[in-house]
Design brief:
alpha+beta, six-stranded mixed sheet, three-stranded antiparallel sheet
Amino acid sequence: MITNIEELFRITQDRLEGQHGTITINFANRSHVYSGNDVIGNCLQEWLPNWFEHLGVDIKPGDNTQSFPDFVANFENVSYDIEVKAWNYNNSPAFDIANFSSFLATTYESPGKLDASYFILGYRPMNDGFSQGFVVEKVYLKHIWQITSPSTKYTLDLQVKRSRPYTIRPFNFSCN
């Protein structure tokens, strides 16, 4: 029985790093292996909680699919807010950590979100691109302060739209 988030991370890291996968679509009695990159991260983000359930973890989706947290895991009466992220390991991470305005507005009322656990999967295409699938290179368990840093222009690495902060983005923590 898994008793805490660190143990879940170690098991996940041991069993998933180096694993090969494909994304398959079944439609109109036809099966097709997807060879693009743009849905792999989303599929892994949806798949990972199912993996946790397979390991016997009591995990439930957050209250709203577009708001924090993605999931809540319970170990021995201790709840952990979990965010799940994935990115193409050949590039710097560019996933959204949080909407900037929403993060500012809600963190004061719910400071516990600063303690959330981020399960992050770094995946790579197979040698010929994604037509032969992908491999999970690295599994991380991080907190928000471990994946954010100042940028050359702002106090945080941000995506900016129309001269306004839009989303908080990670720095390339995989190089550390």
